[in-house]
Amino acid sequence: VIQSDDQQRRSEYFWLNRLDSCFLLSLSLPLSLHTLSQVTPPLYYKQFLGKCLSDLPQFADFWFFYKELKMATPISLLIRTLLLSALVAIAPGNGARYIANWTSIDSRPIPQWYDDAKIGIFIHWGVFSVPGFGQFSEWFWWWWQGQKREDEVEFMKKHYPPNFQYTDFAHSFKAQFYNPDDWAEIFEASGAKYIVFVSKHHEGFCNWPSADSWNWNAMDTGPHRDLLGDLATAVRKRKGLHFGLYHSLYEWFHPLYLKDRASGFKTQDFVFQKTLPELVNLVKTYKPELIWSDGDWEAPDTYWNSTEFLAWLYNDSPVKDYVVVNDRWGQGCYCKHGGYYNCADRFTPGTLPDHKWEKCQSVDNRSWGYRRNMKLIELMDLPSIIQDMVYVVALGGNYLLNISPMEDGMISPLFEERLRGMGGWLAVNGEAIYASKPWRVQGENATVPVWYTSKSKTVYAIMLEWPSKLMLNLELPKTSKDTTITMLDNPSVPLKWVPTDPAGLVVLMPENMPASPGQAWVLKLEGVL
């Protein structure tokens, strides 16, 4: 029998209350790391053991949350033998398993679907959508009662009674016009290939019926429905759309988190009673294809038990073969550990990175959550979105574009217009984006700004301006006798070109500039080096 430590309360919690998701017998670490310790097992360990041995298929879900596994003693040789025999009986024969350390976790290849997808939609929605005020409105509770920022304090004094609490906003989070099928149609029309929906932000409100967030979830209060589950179902009806979720590891004002932080993160009550049970529940219930972790930065990954969770996710979870994660799993992990790299919000490298990365960018430049006081000038226009996306993809990244629904479940027509416009551009030019690879050179600026992508032997030159003299000079491609050039919006008409010395070419552009919703045009170059 495995025991976490000598705290009986925690022991009882894990052994009795979390048998469905938090088994403590590890398949993620080699047995050589297991040690013995004189720890009193819980009174019900016999019942626990009986459940384990009578339901061997559930061993596939066993995992451990601690750096050191401790056998509870005294324990009979027979019981130990039975446990080890059960492990052997269900262990995979040949497949390699990931161990709970970063060397092993980082060695896992990123599933191909993610690199091919290129474009995703980020959705920030929660109780913070009700006040919908201020810069980075999703942080409203913290600005108001944590940092006590003047704008938010004055906003509350002006519009709400003195005894109003942040939790009171949940009663107004009705989502009465929320239609997940309508959302999914907009996302499909945007040309995006994956969705990242906020399951829980730092305020702690859960957009699904979490058993570990009593009366602070979308089923118990506010909408009284499973917002996350309904969207997952709607998205998966759309061909080619992958469903992922964002999840904040921490919560600003949760008592257990504040207690752990006060201990210098020497205790982990919040992690084991809140964060990990909820993550496991989300994975088992909704089977997300992507987990976008956040809210990790105050504590090291050892506090969050990140490597143990990821080892379970990659080895034994129902999404083990296709799930993708980011790099926000504790202090020091950004741009270093995990799956693909976010590095920072709106991260934009200056050169081609040597690791898969993603830029998250919000249509509203001043917030991820909905703001009632946003102004048109503060929103990205469509050409800015397309140019940003092209730059990211040319440098090997994915582009995750954020929109923020209103508290009633409606997506602002301004956001919808941007998404449909992006989809219109991708409908014509997506060949240069989806499943593309960076070319040997990422861009040039001889005549107008040009970014390159490639597929096999085909090169795509994406112009961010139309050449004023109808002559496009490309200095980097090397032509051959087989070189042909067309525009993706009119592929049946080859363009005339002449080679330049020692390399490059000049393309004669059409006299009439083709209409482009994103003010970007794509040349398809075949037979070039």
Automatic annotation (TrEMBL):
InterPro entries: FUC_metazoa-typ, Fucosidase_C, GH, Glyco_hydro_29, Glyco_hydro_29_CS, Glyco_hydro_29_N, Glyco_hydro_b. Residues 96-431 form the Glycoside hydrolase family 29 N-terminal domain. The keyword Oxidoreductase does not apply. Its EC number is 3.2.1.51. Keywords: Glycoprotein, Glycosidase, Hydrolase, Lipid metabolism, Lysosome, Signal. This is Tissue alpha-L-fucosidase. PROSITE patterns: ALPHA_L_FUCOSIDASE. Alpha-L-fucosidase is responsible for hydrolyzing the alpha-1,6-linked fucose joined to the reducing-end N-acetylglucosamine of the carbohydrate moieties of glycoproteins. It comes from the Eukaryota. SUPFAM superfamilies: (Trans)glycosidases. The lineage of its organism: Eukaryota, Metazoa, Chordata, Craniata, Vertebrata. Pfam families: Alpha_L_fucos, Fucosidase_C. Residues 442-526 form the Alpha-L-fucosidase C-terminal domain. It catalyses: a neolactoside IV(2)-alpha-Fuc-nLc4Cer(d18:0) + H2O = a neolactoside nLc4Cer(d18:0) + L-fucose; a neolactoside IV(2)-alpha-Fuc-nLc4Cer(d18:1(4E)) + H2O = a neolactoside nLc4Cer(d18:1(4E)) + L-fucose. GO terms for cellular component: lysosome. Homotetramer. One of its GO terms (molecular function) is alpha-L-fucosidase activity. It is found in: Lysosome. It comes from Umbra pygmaea (Eastern mudminnow). Belongs to the glycosyl hydrolase 29 family. One of its GO terms (biological process) is lipid metabolic process.
